[in-house]
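It is time I had a proper look at our fold encoding. Can you supply me with one protein entry, sequence and fold together? It will help me judge whether the discrete encoding reads sensibly. Leave the record below and I will have a look:
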Amino acid sequence: MRMFPFVPASPAQMIRLGLRSSVMLAEAQAVMAMRLFGMFGLWPVTPQENSRMVTEKIQAMHESQAAAFRAVMKGASAAGVAEAALRPVSRRTHANAGRLAKRSG
């Protein structure tokens, strides 16, 4: 007998997860570009930006792991666990993209 039965994801869950992942990846690419341009002096960034990009990844991964664990313990589907794990990372990439984009003007 399996302790956690497999619950397949619905098509709607898969589409939502794919869209949220795509948005997060696009925002992450934008953040990486702005930070790289900042390192070369082509984008206005704060002096703390380089250390921030390292420390926030560690925090986001800890939050992501904890969220995924909580979702598993609540019996969420695989898509539900993935969405829970994506949420903290996505929240940071969205905030960083907005913050860095504002610095250009």
Summary: Helices lie at 11-39, 49-73, 78-102. The longest helix spans residues 11-39. The mean pLDDT is 91.
